[in-house]
Write a structure and sequence with these properties.
- By secondary structure, this protein is an alpha+beta fold.
- The protein has three domains: about 10-165, Molybdenum Cofactor Biosythetic Enzyme, Chain A (3-Layer(aba) Sandwich); about 170-245, Alpha-Beta Plaits; about 250-405, Maf protein.
- Helices cover about 40% and strands about 25% of the residues.
- It has 13 helices and 15 strands.
- α8 packs parallel to α13.
- The radius of gyration is 28 Å and the shape is elongated.
- The two termini are about 45 Å apart.
């Protein structure tokens, strides 16, 4: 997990499960397979949290040190659990294999811990409800493979925690905004959410979008939800139409919903984005109800063949131009019979264009939107590398469509 070859997904799953129980996650730590580092990390975790979950390091090899380091951090001994050892031996016998001696370490149990049988693997989990420096601590050891960790957490850990913890309920809301600076959002919303110290507020920015997350924990779900809704409604009033989603829906989900409500259909013609806009839209289930399809019109000849853009228009103004963006949106709308046609043409780089587009800068993008009566074209200069220009172009296109539908 400390290399670029593996991504931590277990913590996301565990966080959601803990949130369902009214538990807020305050810290996540990734530690390498080093005995001193692991022991120190567990001690730090015990000093700052009431519940500590450890995943991974329960295998049979020399670098699987979670049991030993947890025992060191807690000042406990490990003992061999006979039933677990027998189960391990039976597992190998069933496969007509001799059990290597090092597999026996998987039967080691922390003194006082409850064994959590693992039907999907050889490494059982452990649940320990103990006291450290006169404070109650719950320590949970889980295997690393997600196919083992997830069912073990759901079927064994959650019932233990639900029985051990006082009733607490967690409510969450999420507001999403596109193409607005994070600093602007915070300047306008901080005076509001700072009035709610019992609601945890997080601002996340990236890929042309700002997300505001609100979280409250209360003795009842109704209290928690009411508090989260209070701050959310005030922020919604302040930000108005800048908010495209008040319950976490993506921009493409919202656009498809609005198309359906208006009884309209959409087709796209994409040049520099190469199908990225259509890909975003079609990741949403049932998108075919309102999204008819489109074309990747990457070269001038294909722009003419599939969207009926006049060749002389491209020769005169260049592929990346307001007239061509307009013609693409109108052409794809007519070709597909859609209510709305949406086009993107631009220079994503890293090399510059030639012909009539010579001298035009990288990041220059035109977005066209046609409805049969009026065609709107938006010119953009998007900074960044190729990937950023392409992604932000689709974000601008979807946001332009959302505002038209509003």
């Amino acid at each position: 997990m400390l290399t670029p070859h593996r991504q931590d997904t277990n913590s996301l799953y565990l966080t959601q499960g803990l949130n369902d129980l009214g538990v807020s996650v305050a810290f996540k730590t990734i530690v390498g397979d080093n005995r001193q580092h692991l022991t120190d990390g567990i001690r730090i975790a015990l000093a700052r949290a009431d519940i500590v979950l450890l995943s991974g390091g329960l295998g049979p090899t020399e670098d699987d040190l979670t049991r030993e380091c947890t025992a060191d951090a807690l000042g406990l001994e490990l003992h061999t659990d006979p039933s677990t050892l027998l189960a391990l031996q039976a597992r190998f016998t069933a496969r007509r294999m001799a059990m290597p001696p090092n597999n026996a370490k998987q039967a080691q149990l922390l003194d006082g811990a409850t064994l959590l049988p693992n039907p999907n693997g050889s490494a059982p989990g452990q649940y320990l409800d103990t006291t450290v420096d006169q404070h109650r601590k719950i320590v949970i050891l889980l295997p690393g493979p997600p196919k083992e960790l997830k069912p073990l957490f759901d079927e064994a850990v959650k019932p233990h925690l639900a029985a051990a913890l006082p009733p607490r309920f967690l409510a969450k809301r999420q507001l999403r905004m596109a193409l607005i600076p994070e600093s602007t959002v915070d300047a306008r919303t901080a005076p509001i959410y700072q009035q709610f110290p019992d609601v945890e507020t997080t601002i996340l920015a990236g890929h042309g979008e700002i997300q505001l997350h609100f979280l409250a924990t209360k003795p009842t779900l109704a209290e928690a939800q009411q508090r989260v809704d209070e701050v959310t409604e005030l922020v919604e009033h302040e930000m108005g139409d800048d908010i495209f989603s008040s319950h976490g829906e993506s921009l493409e989900e919202v656009v498809l919903l609005m198309l359906g409500l208006h009884g309209q259909t959409l087709a796209v013609a994409e040049s520099c984005t190469g199908g990225l806009l259509a890909e975003r839209i079609t990741t949403i289930p049932n998108s075919s109800r309102t999204f008819l399809g489109g074309a990747i019109v990457y070269t001038p000849i294909v722009k003419t063949a599939l969207a009926n853009v006049p060749a002389d228009l491209i020769e005169q103004h260049g592929s990346v131009s307001e007239p061509v963006a307009r013609a693409l949106a109108e052409g794809i709308r007519k070709a597909t019979g859609a209510t709305l046609g949406l086009s993107i043409t631009g220079i994503a780089g890293p090399t510059l264009m030639s012909g009539a587009d010579t001298g035009k800068p990288i990041g220059l993008v035109y977005i066209g939107l046609a409805d049969g009566e009026d065609t709107q074209v938006k010119q953009l200069q998007i900074p960044g590398d190729r990937d950023r220009i392409r992604l932000w172009s689709t974000q601008h296109a979807l946001e332009l469509l959302r505002h038209r539908l509003q």
